[in-house]
Specification:
Elements (H helix, E strand, L loop, with lengths): L4 E3 L2 E3 L5 E6 L9 E7 L6 E7 L5 E3 L7 E6 L4 E6 L8 E7 L18 E2 L3 E5 L2
Parallel strand pairs: 2-11
Antiparallel strand pairs: 1-3, 3-8, 4-5, 4-9, 5-6, 7-8, 9-10, 9-11
Length: 128
């Protein structure tokens, strides 16, 4: 399994911004896609954004398009989720995950249980 360490969550007002980080020390993740998921209380875990070195594919859920962007720094072995124009409905625990399908284009054929490596999760709360 791949070790993933998340940071950057917190409390922010609506319209604000946060940047989440997911470090994967010791692994380059050239083969697997890496995905940000989130889970709000009482809701299913959902994929938010994805990036894959294998085929340069990306994915953003409709609910976050134009507001969230995912990037990676391969030298630092870290991926980021920049979240802008945050809304109360973005409140959730955010997880990064990998060790699943190699391409973001395959996300529609998989669910969160197909990813074997997970970070510990970081809470994002959007509230005034």
């Amino acid at each position: 399994q791949v070790q993933l360490v998340e940071s950057g969550g917190g409390l922010v007002q609506p319209g604000g911004s946060l940047r989440l980080s997911c470090a994967h020390p010791g692994f380059t993740l050239d083969y697997y896609a890496i995905v940000w998921f989130r889970q709000a209380p009482g809701k299913e875990r959902e994929a938010v954004s994805c990036i894959a070195n294998s085929d340069k594919s990306t994915y953003d859920a409709d609910s976050v398009k134009g507001r969230f962007s995912m990037s990676r720094d391969n030298a630092k072995k870290t991926v980021y989720l920049q979240m802008n124009s945050l809304k109360p409905e973005d409140t959730a625990v955010y997880y990064c995950a990998t060790d699943g399908p190699p391409s973001c284009a395959m996300l529609s054929d998989h669910n969160w249980t197909d990813f074997a490596s997970w970070g510990q999760g970081t809470q994002v709360t959007v509230s005034s």
